[in-house]
DNA sequence: GCATATAGTTCGCGACACGAATTTAATGCC
DNA sequence: GGCATTAAATTCGTGTCGCGAACTATATGC
């Protein structure tokens, strides 16, 4: 009587084709809105008839709405389609000092934003966050809330979905997802901040077709979001991307992780502050913002500290370039404000250790929005991504799955 | 009149479902042969009727043949199916000193094997290789040759398919693929040796379901085959996986790549020989084989040299573990013969720098066959992989593609 | 008013997977 | 030996899907 569920392999049915094409059309609308059915057919390669059926379905599902009527030199006028911006996503970005809470539409545009303090107590922070989320939902009763997306400087277990390894927050193992879900009744998606930035690039960046890139987030530490073969790399346990804790020099200063000479010991905001304080011999507490301001005003020691920081960032990037050969490296963080002055230093360092061909582009990103935008993508990919069609259908008409014998 | 081919997005048709399911069934037959249609239906989740149609197609395509008749306590006997082992793949593994040429069936079993010298002249090596391939084809006129797979210690440009960056061979930019194809008339696939080992693991290894692992090949240098999210990582230019040239210590000895203190300077066969010669102060030329033999016979200095080598390998693996969090690391090379003695050293080193959770398994592989088996997979994946069905169909009845307006 | 051009819909067709019914082929009990 | 039972494999009717041609709707301009 050894009956096991053998249905482990992913087989395709007719529905599969529809799911795939639904995803293609939905994403084309997202990218090129407003766009007519005829153009969708041209761009996708699908037949106009097929596009009509799919868009009809998407409109039924409330993801797409009719937009304005277009104008052409001749012929019937096209009715443009666009995403339904009454679908909203609640987002939050946890950082050691403060948490940013926001409300965004499906296009990644923010309807509102606010900040709240982050505390060492995960339970209290979760409660405060849940309260603000509930309030946002009450204030906007006309919106359809798709979910909550949260980015944070830490790692989320693939299995339990708990927050694990968040040294910069100082949190222990904690079920943030469960806490917020229970308190708000909305589905929550968690993601590491660097990974969220990578998602933001893919979903809302101009670079549509890049399949291999790495995001490097520089703040208190250094985080990396690794995106290869068109997919985010999470690794077995969701721990992938901790290049910040790879040693550049085994005899270097100690790191909070327990290691020595880690990349982030040399290239983080904290490292720049350390460089500055070592050289100026002042005892006063500075923030990285202050350091940037000093550099802006021409302070030689501040400039020198930033120079060392940027060089170290480039040095660490070499291992990513050598090992993964990405097409592009995207830098996120406050330091990008000094990109004009020091960006070339990074490129020089990256180019130095390069083995063959052309080194990748290194590009800064305005940092404030990337993390939040990424969490929007995090929530949306459940609906827009592959095999999302099946989920929608289930949700819509609650078809039961096949019983397992 | 700006007409561009807009059909950039991958859309699905009815055929797509068949392609996917054909791949599922074909791979199930490969994995579980001999297997009956009924079992295929059970394991795949497809209907028996569907399985019959697909297997009929596969038999028409000559990929599958009828095997023996099974026995059951009751009921009609199943006719087992298995892969057609008259389909053969020509394989070659280029190494700095010698090249191994072989003939394998679709199951990765070798029908014959021979070796030939590798020279510094790529043109001469290609000619010699092509001659042996032609001879193998003449000797086996009853076989259907699917293609030639070649693994080598170097990188292949994604664009031109030329061999680029092969410092250990001492070759310049060279069109090996084109040379062999012109000389033999058979389609050639090139791949880096470490990547080939990774493919061998996925196709012929026991570990069917591991989606994230890294192969580390240790010989003259150190190569890595990075396999993440169920896919080989090649990077933008096919250069991904050169972790062997990431510095462990920026003040270390010079490397052939131009850098300093690269991983392979500490962890390769050459490094172990250097350790030994430094300690014993002998001037005689030793091979790594000799060193292993010395260690086997209990030579203290040889043991010490290997110990340092294994520790260095583990130290370099830490960056892979930290950055990519694979589920498993597979080690390939002659050094695996001393795994019992020193394997634990690697595991200890890997475990030391580990941030959270459990470190990955580190596992040795008998090295000789891995590279060659990988090239078999390299050729097969064109026929067995996704969207292979379309290619077969084209090949079979030469349907023309749609004309682009 | 009619040719022309373009957007969007309708409809018949073929490919496909599904699932029930049927056929085929074995075993074992009476 | 006859017949119920069991299981493999095939056949056939049904629904879904994309394709492509035909058709409808709606605009411009001579």
SSE inventory with pairings:
2 copies of one chain form a homodimer.
Chain A: H1 14-32, E1 35-36, H2 37-44, H3 48-60, E2 64-69, E3 79-83, E4 87-94, E5 98-105, E6 110-117, H4 122-139, E7 144-152, E8 155-156, E9 163-164, H5 176-184, E10 188-192, H6 193-204, E11 213-218, E12 222-228, E13 231-232, H7 263-267, H8 269-280, H9 288-296, H10 300-324, E14 328-333, H11 339-352, E15 361-365, H12 367-384, H13 388-397
Parallel strand pairs in A: 4-7, 7-10, 11-14, 14-15
Antiparallel strand pairs in A: 1-3, 2-3, 4-5, 5-6, 8-9, 11-12, 12-13
The structure holds a DNA duplex (30 and 30 nucleotides).
Description:
Two copies of one chain form a homodimer. Chain A has helices at 14-32, 37-44, 48-60, 122-139, 176-184, 193-204, 263-267, 269-280, 288-296, 300-324, 339-352, 367-384, 388-397; strands at residues 35-36, 64-69, 79-83, 87-94, 98-105, 110-117, 144-152, 155-156, 163-164, 188-192, 213-218, 222-228, 231-232, 328-333, 361-365. Chain A is α/β, with parallel strands linked by helices and 405 residues long. Chain A folds into three domains: 15-84, Arc Repressor Mutant, subunit A, CATH 1.10.10.10; 87-197, ATPase, nucleotide binding domain (Nucleotidyltransferase, domain 5); 205-369, 2-Layer Sandwich (Nucleotidyltransferase, domain 5), CATH 3.30.420. In chain A, the strands form four sheets. Chain A has a five-stranded mixed beta sheet with strand order 6-5-4-7-10, sandwiched between helices. The first copy, chain A, has a five-stranded mixed beta sheet with strand order 13-12-11-14-15, sandwiched between helices. In chain A, a hairpin with a 3-residue loop joins β11 (213-218) and β12. In chain A, α2 (37-44) packs across α3 (48-60), α8 runs antiparallel to α10 (300-324) and α9 (288-296) packs across α10 (300-324). The longest helix of chain A has 25 residues, at 300-324. Chain A starts with 13 loop residues before the first helix and ends in an 8-residue tail after the last helix. Chains A and B meet through α1, α2, β12 and α10 of A and α1, α2, β12 and α10 of B. Chain A binds a DNA duplex (30 and 30 nucleotides) through residues 11-15, 17-18, 21, 36-38, 46-53, 70-79.
């Amino acid at each position: 009587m050894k009956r096991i569920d053998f249905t482990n392999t992913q087989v395709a049915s007719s529905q599969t084709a529809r799911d795939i094409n639904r995803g293609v059309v939905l994403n084309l609308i997202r990218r090129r809105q407003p766009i007519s059915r005829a153009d969708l057919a041209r761009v996708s390669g699908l037949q106009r008839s097929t596009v009509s059926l799919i868009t009809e379905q998407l409109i039924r599902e409330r993801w797409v709405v009719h937009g304005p009527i277009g104008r052409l030199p001749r012929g019937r006028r096209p009715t443009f389609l666009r995403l339904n911006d009454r679908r909203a996503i609640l987002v939050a970005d946890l950082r050691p000092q403060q948490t940013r809470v926001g409300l965004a539409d499906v296009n990644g545009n923010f309807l509102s934003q606010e900040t709240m303090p982050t505390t060492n107590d995960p339970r209290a922070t979760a409660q405060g966050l849940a309260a603000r989320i509930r309030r946002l939902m009450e204030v906007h009763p006309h919106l359809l809330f798709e979910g909550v997306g949260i980015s944070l400087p830490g790692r989320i277990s693939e299995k339990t979905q708990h927050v694990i390894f968040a040294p910069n927050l100082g949190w222990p193992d904690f079920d943030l997802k469960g806490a917020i879900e229970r308190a708000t009744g909305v589905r929550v998606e968690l993601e590491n901040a660097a990974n969220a930035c990578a998602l933001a690039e893919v979903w809302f960046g101009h670079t549509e077709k890049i399949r291999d890139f790495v995001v490097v987030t520089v703040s208190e530490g250094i985080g990396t979001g690794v995106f290869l073969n068109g997919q985010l790399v999470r690794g077995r346990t969701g721990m992938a991307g901790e290049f910040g804790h790879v040693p550049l020099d085994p005899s270097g200063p100690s790191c909070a992780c327990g290691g020595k000479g880690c990349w982030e010991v040399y290239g983080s905001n904290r490292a720049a502050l350390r460089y500055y304080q070592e050289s100026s011999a002042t005892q006063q507490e500075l923030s990285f913002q202050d350091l940037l301001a000093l550099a802006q005003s021409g302070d030689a020691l501040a400039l020198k500290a930033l120079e060392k920081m940027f060089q170290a960032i480039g040095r660490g990037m070499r291992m990513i370039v050598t090992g993964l050969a990405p097409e592009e490296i995207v830098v996120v963080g406050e330091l990008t404000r000094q990109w004009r002055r020091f960006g070339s230093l990074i490129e020089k360092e990256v180019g130095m250790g390069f083995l063959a061909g052309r080194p990748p582009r290194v590009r800064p990103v305005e940092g404030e929005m990337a993390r939040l935008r990424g969490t929007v993508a995090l929530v949306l990919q459940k609906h827009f991504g592959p095999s999302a069609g099946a989920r929608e259908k289930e949700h819509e008409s609650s078809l039961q799955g096949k019983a397992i014998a």
